[in-house]
Amino acid sequence: MMFHVLLYLILNFCLVNAVMTTSYSKAIGLFTSGTASFAKNSGVIRVGSRDAPRDGINPYFVPLNFYSFDNYSKLKAISSILNAAVEAGATGDILYLYNYIAFNGEEGNVALTNYTSNFKDEVCLFLKTYEANSTLELSETTADKKLSTYYKNFPVGDCGGDVGGDFSSHGYKT
Fold first, then answer.
1. What is the pLDDT of residue 54?
2. Strand residue runs (E) in the chain
3. How confident is the model at residue 101 (pLDDT cuts 50, 70, 90)?
4. Is the Cβ–Cβ distance between 55 and 167 less than 8 Å?
């Protein structure tokens, strides 16, 4: 009897975890594919240090606090997904979602095509901040295939300057 209860609890935990992962993955996919649609409205968006991890003297992630004139609902949805990414330690997703919010939900700024969007510059800045020379860890810490491919094929050589090591060795928790 005790074995059956334990087995039930383990299977139930695995099922809930799988559903959460699927929903989380689908939610990120809506944004990376550009298919998310929200009503235009306004409001104040806040992403505190609890929502975006910070570390060291010169952290990449800083709190965001601004008024969105047009994408408030979209930003609130992204903020919820960002919280889930932080809880999951999904660095690749955190970086993308944080920048999606920082760019006021404007899809062109975080487009994952041809490495021409502003997001490319932010990935370079992130790599420089943590003195990393590879986006492999970013590609392995995202729930979205398109974002993973973006990181895997990222032209690190375009970042220039001093990059080296990996960001986990600088106290950043993934």
1. 58
2. 43-47, 64-68
3. very high
4. no
> Reduced to 3 states, what is the DSSP secondary structure of residue 20?
helix
Kindly list the domain boundaries of the chain, sorted by start residue: 2-170
In this predicted structure, what is the pLDDT of residue 58?
56
Tell me the one-letter amino acid at 92. Answer: G
CA distances to 7, 13, 15, 149 from 3, in Å: 6, 15, 18, 42
Q: Which two tokens stand for residue 169?
A: 């060795």
CA gap 83, 47 in Å, rounded: 9
Tell me which residue of 141, 133, 130 sits closest to 159, measured CA to CA: 133
H/E run at residue 58: none
Which phi and psi (to 5°) does residue 33 adopt?
-90, -10
* Half-sphere exposure of residue 155: CA atoms within 13 angstroms, side-chain side: 11
Q: Phi/psi at 41 (nearest 5 deg)?
A: -155, 175
